[in-house]
Known about the structure:
InterPro entries: GUN4-like, GUN4-like_sf. This protein is mainly α. The chain has two domains: 11-91; 106-242, Gun4-like (Arc Repressor Mutant, subunit A). 54% of the residues lie in helices and 2% in strands. It has twelve helices and two strands; from the N terminus they run αααααααααααββα. A two-stranded antiparallel sheet has the order 1-2. β1 and β2 (202-203) form a beta hairpin. α3 packs across α4. The longest helix is centred in the middle third of the chain and has 20 residues, at 118-137. The protein is globular and about 55 Å long.
Amino acid sequence: MNMIKTNNIDNNARHLLMLPSDGNSSVKLRQVALIHKMYGLGYDCQRQLLSILLSRQEDRSIQISDVDGLIFELLLESNYYSITNDLNQLLSSGIVTLESAIGIDYSGLQQLLVSKQFQKADKLTQSLLCNLAQRNGRHARKWLYFTDVSSMPVVDLLTIDKLWQVHSKGLFGLSIQRDIWLSTNSDWEKFWSKIGWKVNDVNCRYPHEFVWNVTAPPGHLPLFNQLRGVQVLAALFTHPAWHETSDKKSY
């Protein structure tokens, strides 16, 4: 094995892993490769990864991303007790700030996404969006109507989206879906095919024809029932939450 000197890892890794990766696929690929390499080199490098993760959390110029999610999830599986113990103490609430304008608890969604229980996370996401609609609209409906969406708090939609992005290698989330939809010039048929909800022009059947892991196409999750029409998704994709936060990406 071609070993890297620890000092070189200290200097090179900290510089590379402190770079923002949003919108720069080459930087992200290098970061991901280095993270896996460092993790495999054992205790000292895992301790450095923890230090870098904490530095990224403190640096307000860095948007928390799936790079942070990768480090966090790998360190959770570390064989070194002191690593996992420090991680759980220092980041006991995870790496995404669970903000809500109306007091909704997103910790359950976070736990499911961290543990890659995507089908359960998808169901919970639908429940949370209905909860948002119920609290804002003061009704008891257990499904979303497109008129519910515009009054949903920006901060809550961003929290849900960030959780999905950070804990799916950047593949899933509402803003990812929105970017793909925009890349098709808002063509819903092209959109369904790109995100894998239609295969060979046939709607996928729930749940067994959907993909519940990160081998799915970008934007595959969370699901929405396209058979009921596109109005809810259209309302979500035009919500003010994304107007200043969406990065331009090609799909």
